[in-house]
Amino acid sequence: MATTSGQDIQSLEHILEKMDINNKEYVTKLLYGKNLEKLIIPADILENAEKIDIDLQGYIFKAKSESTRISNIVRVGAVQNQIVLPTTDSVADQILALHNRIKHIIEIAASCEVNILCLQETWTMPFAFCTREKIPWCEFAEHIPNGLTTQFLKKLAKLYKMVIISPILERDEKDVIWNTAVVIDQDGNVMGKCRKNHIPRVSDFNESTYYMEGNTGHPVFDTKYGKIGVNICYCRHHPLSWLIYGLEGAQIVFNPCATVDGLSETMWPIEARNAAIANSYFTVAINRVGTEVFPNEFTSGDGKPAHRELGHFYGSSYISGPDGSRTKGLSRSKDGLLIAEMDLNLCRQVKDAWGFLMTSRLDMYVKKLHELCQPV
Amino acid sequence: MATTSGQDIQSLEHILEKMDINNKEYVTKLLYGKNLEKLIIPADILENAEKIDIDLQGYIFKAKSESTRISNIVRVGAVQNQIVLPTTDSVADQILALHNRIKHIIEIAASCEVNILCLQETWTMPFAFCTREKIPWCEFAEHIPNGLTTQFLKKLAKLYKMVIISPILERDEKDVIWNTAVVIDQDGNVMGKCRKNHIPRVSDFNESTYYMEGNTGHPVFDTKYGKIGVNICYCRHHPLSWLIYGLEGAQIVFNPCATVDGLSETMWPIEARNAAIANSYFTVAINRVGTEVFPNEFTSGDGKPAHRELGHFYGSSYISGPDGSRTKGLSRSKDGLLIAEMDLNLCRQVKDAWGFLMTSRLDMYVKKLHELCQPV
Description:
Two copies of one chain form a homodimer. Chain A has one domain: 4-Layer Sandwich (Nitrilase/N-carbamoyl-D-aminoacid amidohydrolase). Chain A is built from nine helices and 17 strands. Chain A has helices spanning 12-18, 24-32, 43-51, 91-111, 148-160, 239-247, 268-279, 345-354, 362-372; strands at 37-38, 55-61, 73-80, 116-118, 163-171, 177-184, 190-195, 201-202, 205-206, 221-223, 226-230, 252-257, 282-287, 289-298, 307-314, 318-320, 336-343. In chain A, the strands form four sheets. Chain A has an eight-stranded mixed β-sheet with strand order 1-2-17-3-4-5-6-7, sandwiched between helices. In chain A, β5 (163-171) and β6 (177-184) form a beta hairpin. In chain A, α4 runs parallel beside α5. Chain A is globular and about 60 Å long. At the A-B interface, α1, α2, β8, α6 and α7 of A face α1, α2, β8, α6 and α7 of B.
C-alpha cells in the first residue's frame, strides 16, 4: 500500500482510471459531474509538453446554443510548477530560472491557443513564508508594473495575444508588501491588480509576517475574452469572497494557491467547486507542486523537531463549471498545464436554470450581517 | 454497464468498496477526508434494522482531549425514507402510514442512543410540489404544535429523551403555508421552528406555488445536546444561509432535503460538506429516497411529454465534520438511518487551527453587500 503523502501518488484520477469497475460512468458522474469531452491536442504539442516534462491536459465545457447570443468560447490555462533552483541560490537567479521555465510553459499554452492564463500564487519564489525569516525572502517582492516579472510577462502577453494573470509578492512605493495578482491584457498592458484579502494564520503559515490584508476589494476585469476575478489562495475558504466576484459579474474566478498535503487536501476538491456552483461561474483552482527545502531549519508550531522541508505541495489543479462539473485534476507531483475550452454562455444558462442569485434575499443578509458585526 | 439513474445503483461507496486497488487508503482520504472509525452497533440492533429493511450505518468523529473542557459527545441520527402508501390513498392514511414507519426507525435510533434526530424535508407527504395541484396536497399542511405530526413526535421525543427535528408543511392560524422544521426537545416540548428561507424555481419545482419565503430568520436552538440549526433543502445552495448559522453559534446544522437525480446529484456531495468546512461546524445532509408516482399527469417545463413520475430521489444522506471529513453516504435506494457520534469540541478546535471566522473581515463584506443590494 502506498503512503498517503509525498510524491508517490500521482493523482486520484490515475488510481480510478486503473480500476476494474462496471460502473465507471456512474463513478465519473458522481465525482466529476459529467464526463467532460477531452480537448484534442495535436501530437507535436503533446511531444513538446513531454520534452519539458509537464502534465498537459485539456477539457471542454459546452453550453447550449442560443438564438439571441452567439457562443462565447474561451480557452483558459492553469499552470502549476515546482521551483527550479535550490532555495539557497541567489534571489535573482531563482527568479530568472522560474521566468525561463514559465516561458516554455506559456509557449505551449500559446500553441494550444490559450486566451487567458493564470500562474500559481507567488510563482516567482519558493513559498518561504513558513521560515519567518525576512532575509532574503522579502527580496522577491517586486514593484508593479516596473518589476522584472511584470515586464517579462507583458512581452509574452503581447506576443501571444494572451491575458496573463501573474500572482507575485508585491512591494509598493512605500515598501509595503502585498500578495498580489497582476492582470495583463492581450496587448501587454497592465489592466490592474488584486491583493489577497484574507491572510492565513494556520499551521506553518502566518503570512501576515510578510504582507498585509488586501485593500483592492474584489475587482472584476472585463478582458477581451471574458470577465475575470482572482481570489488568492486562503480566500478560497471564505464564501463571501467568492460571492462578491459573482455579484460583480465575474464569469471565471481564478484561485492561485500554494498548499501542502496533510493540511488542506481534504478540502481542496470541495471549495473551488462549491464556489462555481454557488455563484454560477467557472473557477480555476491552481496549486503549486513539489517539496521545497530551506537553508535554515524552522519549527512548525506543532511540537515536532525543527526541520528544513515544508511538506509536499500536491498540485491537483482543476477547473469547475457553473453546473458543478469539473475537469480531472493535474498531477500531484509534476509541473502541469491544464486547459479548458469553455463556453461562457453556460454561466447565464445555469443562472436561468437554478436561480441562486434571484433567490438569494441579499437584503435580509446585509441586515443580519450588520447586526452580527457589532463588537461585543 | 449500469444506467446512471434509477435505483440500480446502490451507492458510490458500494462500487468503491468492491474495487481492486492498492491505493484505497489514499482514495478514501481524498474522497472522505479520513477513514472515520465505524460506530459499533450491536448485532440485535442490526438485525432489527434488517427486519424493517433500512440501511443502518454509524461513524465516529473524534476530537483531541483538552484539559479545560471535557469531551462534548453527542449522537446524531439522520433518517431518509420512501413514502409508504400510494399517493392516491387518502391524505390521512398516508400520514398515518408514514408515522408508523418513522416510529419503527426512531425506535432503532433510540436503541442506538441517538440524542438528536432529524427527519427529511416534508417527511409526512409525497413531494407533490411538481404537480402544481393544490388539491389534495395542501391538506398535508399541519398546524404547529397542534397538528397530528407534532403531537405524535412530542411523545416519542419525551419517551426516548431525544431532540427531534421534524420538517413538515406548516399551515398557520391564517392559513398561510410554510415549509417548516419543528424542533422538539428531549422532554417533548416544542423549542421553536425554522421556516425555509429560499424557495426553488428550478426544474419541476416552483415551490412558491405552495408556501412562502420563511420569516423566522436563522434560529440556533441551544438544546441539551448541542447548538443546532436547520437549513432546509434549497437553502443549501446559499452560502450566506450557512454562514449565519455559524455566526449564531451553531455546532450542527441539519439540511433536510428532497432532490432527484439528473438535477442535483453532481452538487450533493459538495455543498453541505463545503458548509461544514467554511463554518467550522458539523452538517447533516438528508435526502429522501424512492420514486413517487402521482395520480394525474404533469409536465416538467422541459419540452418532454406529460408523465406521472418525478424521478428518483437518490438518498445518499451523509454527515460532514468541520475538518472536512465526512461519513460514507447512505443507500441511493433504501430507507436508512445514519448515525454519527461526534465530539462537538472539534468545532472550536478547527476554528482555533484554521481561523476562518477570525480572518473573515465581515465588516468589509457588509459594506460591499449593502452597495451591491441597491436596486438598479
